[in-house]
Write a structure and sequence with these properties.
There is one protein chain. Strand 7, helix 6 and strand 8 form a beta-alpha-beta unit. By secondary structure, the protein is of the alpha/beta class. It is about 35% helix and about 25% strand. The chain folds into 2 domains: about 170 residues, Rossmann fold; about 70 residues. Helix 7 crosses helix 8. The model has no long low-confidence stretch (mean pLDDT about 90). The strands form 2 sheets. Strands 6-7-8-3-9-10 form a 6-stranded mixed sheet, with helices on both faces. Strands 2-1-4-5 form a 4-stranded antiparallel sheet, covered by helices on one side. It is built from 8 helices and 10 strands. The longest helix is centred in the C-terminal third of the chain and has 23 residues. The chain binds adenosine-5'-triphosphate and magnesium ion (MG). The site of adenosine-5'-triphosphate (ATP) has 14 residues, from strand 2 and helix 1.
Length: about 250
């Protein structure tokens, strides 16, 4: 049997005396879209900081494809919550950044990313600076930079958090289609319940800090989930998840 792509067992982690992740266990299987849903300040970005190597776990184990996660060769492409694009670099040079960090020449990296601009709705904007793009376009550029690295797993931290509601909905539909086409292995962090329900195969629900998984939810709904009968089922699920989150906050 194929091992999970990512498996965290009993992981605890924090800053100085602040406990942030508490005995956290979760799995992501190859090709799965999994979301971490939890309140602000729970420790979602901290989890990504730990996976990308900026923080060490205090206890527990992290396995990747069946082996302990390597300290040196991290297998993730990470899209951070903030400051995703460098304002002084053209969009094409922002898109190549991850590849250049990996050691590819700028010319080779440009040749690799250029053909992808159309699929990411950015054709014609290669030479523009980030300030000349809409919020949705900037996020698509940041996502392009992330996926072009072709790492075994994507970590997306609130990719649509700063967008207005309409753009956000459009981006969710777009990401859902992109995932259907490419079947990336994705771990998405969000505090938007609807976003998690519409995009995910599974959701790990986090408690407030110190965060642990309070509920695992399989989203066994056909895709796309933005029309027809699925919308009503997704809405009922959303209400149910919100109830769990509110109940958990009351007990803290
Ligand atoms: N570098 C740091 N040093 C000390 N404490 C930190 C640091 N970064 C975050 N924290 C604390 O860790 C806790 C979790 O923060 P984190 O950024 O992981 O939350 P989050 O779940 O991503 O929240 P949000 O949804 O608002 O992005 C918070 O209490 C925060 O104040
Ligand atoms: Mg965060």
């Amino acid at each position: 049997m194929t091992p999970p792509r990512l498996q965290l067992s009993g992981v605890s982690c924090g800053y100085d005396r602040l406990a942030v992740l508490d005995d956290l266990s979760l799995t992501v299987n190859p090709g799965e879209f999994v979301s971490i849903l939890g309140p602000s300040g729970a420790g979602k970005s901290t989890l990504f900081r730990m996976l990308t190597g900026a923080l060490q776990p205090q206890s527990g184990t992290i396995f990747f494809d069946g082996a302990p996660l390597s300290q040196t060769a991290r297998p993730f492409a990470f899209m951070p919550q903030r400051d995703a694009l460098m304002p002084w670099r053209r969009i094409i040079d922002n898109a190549t950044l991850g590849l250049e960090v990996q050691g590819m020449s700028r010319q080779a990296a440009r040749s690799k990313v250029r053909p992808l601009f159309a699929e990411f709705g950015l054709a014609g904007f290669e030479e523009h600076y980030p300030a000349a793009l809409s919020g949705g376009m900037r996020q698509r550029a940041a996502l392009l930079r992330t996926v072009v690295q072709e790492r075994p797993m994507l970590l997306l931290d609130e990719p649509f958090g700063a967008l207005d509601a309409l753009t956000r909905s459009r981006m969710q539909i777009w990401l859902s289609e992109m995932w259907r086409r490419h079947r990336w292995t994705v771990l998405l962090v969000t505090h938007d319940v609807r976003e998690a329900v519409l995009l995910s195969d599974r959701i790990h629900l986090l408690s407030p800090r110190p965060a642990r998984v309070i509920r695992d939810i399989d989203i066994d709904l056909p895709r796309p989930r933005f029309d027809g009968a699925t919308v009503a089922t997704a809405a009922a699920l959303e209400t149910d998840i919100l109830k769990t989150l509110f109940q958990t906050e009351e007990t803290f």
